[in-house]
UniProtKB/TrEMBL annotation:
Keyword Methyltransferase part of the UniProt annotation: yes
Species: Rotaria socialis
Name of the protein in question: O-methyltransferase
GO process annotations (BP): methylation
Family: Belongs to the class I-like SAM-binding methyltransferase superfamily. Cation-dependent O-methyltransferase family.
Keywords: Methyltransferase, S-adenosyl-L-methionine, Transferase
Claim: S-adenosyl-L-methionine is one of the keywords in the record: yes
Gene Ontology MF terms: O-methyltransferase activity; S-adenosylmethionine-dependent methyltransferase activity
Length: 192
């Protein structure tokens, strides 16, 4: 079987095709994405296929304000709480009762290890920690590539590799946002 090279156009078309069957139209999400883009928020939003109930950390008051408008317009005010301030400080101040089922880390890659340590503390045993943007167009695996984002992902991988309480894998993704991937980790339950 021969494989041909694919392009960003192919990945975007694939996302649109699959989502047309799996995800009903969501006017509130479409409006939120347009408002975010209009006000210059970075394109950090996950694709339309990913959603949930959450607590989110945002360092920018302006971005938090636009996010809150989007949340309110979507009718999700009672399901989403935004905390403004540095995420590492916010996470450190949350009491550790391990009540979160899932943590999704999509922040500055240089601090991945610190975010992961806090997520592990807050996610219940058997819970999931996802770290976004860990493939970075394949550059993380290329020893000739280095920048603060790549180095932050590498440090996270080293940290997890030395942690016997975590099981993890990386899943490469392609789609409308290009070629990247995420790390999927399970906070292993205590086994007697």
């Amino acid at each position: 079987m021969a494989f041909t090279s694919t392009s960003q156009t192919d990945w975007t078309r694939s996302d649109i095709y699959h989502n047309s069957f799996l995800i009903p139209p969501n006017n509130a999400l479409t409006a939120a994405l347009k408002l975010s883009e209009k006000h210059g928020l970075p394109p950090y939003a996950v694709s339309e296929a990913q959603d949930g109930e959450l607590l989110t950390c945002e360092i920018s008051k302006d971005f938090a304000m636009i996010a809150q408008i989007n949340i309110d317009n979507a009718g999700l005010t009672d399901k989403v709480k935004i905390i403004v301030g540095p995420a590492i400080t916010t996470l450190s101040n949350i009491k550790s009762n391990a009540s979160f089922d899932l943590a999704f880390i999509d922040a500055d890659k240089q601090s991945n290890v610190e975010y992961f340590i806090q997520a592990k503390r807050l996610v219940r045993k058997g819970g999931v920690i996802i770290v976004d943007n860990v493939v970075r167009n394949g550059r993380v695996a290329d020893p000739d590539q280095s920048d603060s984002n790549i180095d932050g992902v590498r440090k996270l991988l080293e940290y997890i590799g030395d942690d016997p309480t975590i099981e993890a894998t990386t899943l490469g993704t392609v789609g409308e946002k290009g070629y990247d991937g995420f790390l999927y980790a399970i906070n292993k339950p205590n086994i007697s």
